[in-house]
Design a protein that fits this description.
The protein contains one helix and five strands, in the order ββαβββ. It has 110 residues and is mainly beta. The protein has a domain of 64 residues. The structure holds zinc ion (ZN) (2 copies).
């Protein structure tokens, strides 16, 4: 008996582009690949920014938290981890952790 096949998750997610959009000009939005993930509000409104626009955001705005963009940033279901400064899935099945750097010994640890 096989359970439902794991859906996996797209790793080549292309939604991590800078979300900068100038409010006072018609200039084109920035479409650079983001290097920063920013949580703007405690409600969880998050966005992406490239390096120059992150610097601009730091200078002009107050925001809740930020971290370097990781593979799970912006993915549905991933959660902002304030302690680890990253985005991750709440309960990531070991089968999907093929890219994890730490080797998990056989058996469950939690
Ligand atoms: Zn930008
Ligand atoms: Zn993130």
């Amino acid at each position: 008996m096989q359970p439902f096949p794991p859906l996996g998750r797209p790793v080549a997610h292309r939604g991590q582009t800078c979300g900068y959009s100038p409010e006072d000009t018609e200039a084109t939005d920035c479409t650079t690949d983001a290097t920063w993930h920013i949580m703007w509000t405690p409600d969880g409104d998050a966005g992406f920014a490239c390096e120059p626009h992150m610097a601009q955001a730091r200078a002009r705005f107050v925001f809740v938290d930020s971290h370097h963009v990781g593979p799970d940033c912006g993915m549905p279901g991933s959660r902002w981890d304030h302690d680890r400064k990253t985005c991750r899935y709440p309960d990531e099945p070991p089968a999907l952790s093929a890219t994890a750097t730490q080797a998990t010994p056989a058996g469950r640890r939690r």
